[in-house]
């Protein structure tokens, strides 16, 4: 009975940790402040009682909850079929949008084999802090020099724009960069409005994050790893919480960019990056 009670307590604490990770993932995945970076920092504070193989998968697969929030909120714009006079019709504008999303995803597919190498060499708080500060400064530079946008609707995005934004998205392979942050910077430089580039960034996440999650699961299974009951619960809870928080974060960002620029997020990144470096320096000294 003591062992069962102890196991129940351990599982409870693991679920609490999963809830915290889901909250962080759901909020930071869509705001340009780096979800992976925040999760790395959170993992310095809370440690899961799980294998490193599971944690490597968990950090990516938890994003499925965030993806589902995009699908739910933008279903009408993403589903390429509709009904008219009792017949199923195809929506050319939606298909065109998806073709541009695919075009923007190609660069990420090309560099995806580097994911494991980057995780092994740069998955640490120093890299996260440096990227937080760098892209925070970029937001200020881009916003200060930015002219009036000439692309305010998704259908105005060209294939050239989509591919260039996709190239910017590749930079998110470095922890702390932020996938949304990189694509937003790229889109702003191309002359997209803040609302337009934010929405396009949401759509780009669907194939990229779904593909990355599938690849992680395959590697986990092929590698011979098996999830414990607690790990299954942790993954499920993390995804559900990430879904709920993502619904709120996406609505917030779409409303925010209608009236504000991205300088606030730039300042947040810089301040957080400095704090992380200061704590790291203090820890090394003392």
UniProtKB/TrEMBL annotation:
One of its GO terms (biological process) is regulation of cell shape. It is a multi-pass membrane protein. Bacitracin is thought to be involved in the inhibition of peptidoglycan synthesis by sequestering undecaprenyl diphosphate, thereby reducing the pool of lipid carrier available. The chain crosses the membrane at residues 57-76, 97-114, 120-142, 202-222, 234-254, 266-285. Its EC number is 3.6.1.27. Its main location: membrane. It comes from Faecalibacterium taiwanense. GO terms for molecular function: undecaprenyl-diphosphatase activity. It catalyses: di-trans,octa-cis-undecaprenyl diphosphate + H2O = di-trans,octa-cis-undecaprenyl phosphate + phosphate + H(+). The keyword rRNA processing does not apply. It is found in: Cell membrane. This is Undecaprenyl-diphosphatase. Keywords: Antibiotic resistance, Cell membrane, Cell shape, Cell wall biogenesis/degradation, Hydrolase, Membrane, Peptidoglycan synthesis, Transmembrane, Transmembrane helix. NCBIfam families: PRK00281.1-5. The lineage of its organism: Bacteria, Bacillati, Bacillota, Clostridia, Eubacteriales. Belongs to the UppP family. Coiled coil: none annotated. InterPro entries: UppP. One of its GO terms (cellular component) is plasma membrane. It comes from the Bacteria. Catalyzes the dephosphorylation of undecaprenyl diphosphate (UPP). Confers resistance to bacitracin.
């Amino acid at each position: 009975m003591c062992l069962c009670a102890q196991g129940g307590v351990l599982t409870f604490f693991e679920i609490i940790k999963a809830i915290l990770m889901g909250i962080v993932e759901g909020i930071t995945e869509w705001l340009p402040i780096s979800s992976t970076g925040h999760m790395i920092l959170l993992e310095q504070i809370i440690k899961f009682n799980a294998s490193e193989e599971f944690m490597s998968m968990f950090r990516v697969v938890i994003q499925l909850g965030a993806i589902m929030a995009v699908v739910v909120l933008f279903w009408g714009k993403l589903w390429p079929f509709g009904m008219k006079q009792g017949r199923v019709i195809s929506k050319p504008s939606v298909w065109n949008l998806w073709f541009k999303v695919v075009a923007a995803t190609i660069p990420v597919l090309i560099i995806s084999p580097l994911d494991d190498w980057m995780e092994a060499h740069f998955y640490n708080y120093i890299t996260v802090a440096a990227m937080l500060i760098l892209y925070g400064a970029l937001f200020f530079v881009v916003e200060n020099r930015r002219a009036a946008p000439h692309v305010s609707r998704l259908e105005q995005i060209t294939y050239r724009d989509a591919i260039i934004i996709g190239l910017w998205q590749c930079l998110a392979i470095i922890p702390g960069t932020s996938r949304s942050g990189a694509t937003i910077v790229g889109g702003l430089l191309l002359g997209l409005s803040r609302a337009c580039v934010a929405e396009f960034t949401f759509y780009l996440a669907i194939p990229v994050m779904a593909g990355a999650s599938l690849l992680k699961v395959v590697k986990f299974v092929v590698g011979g790893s098996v999830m414990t009951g607690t790990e299954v619960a942790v993954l499920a809870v993390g995804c559900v919480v990430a879904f709920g928080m993502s619904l709120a974060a996406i609505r917030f960002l779409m409303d925010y960019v209608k009236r504000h620029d991205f300088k606030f997020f730039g300042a947040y990144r810089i301040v957080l990056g400095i704090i992380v470096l200061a704590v790291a320096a203090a820890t090394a000294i003392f």
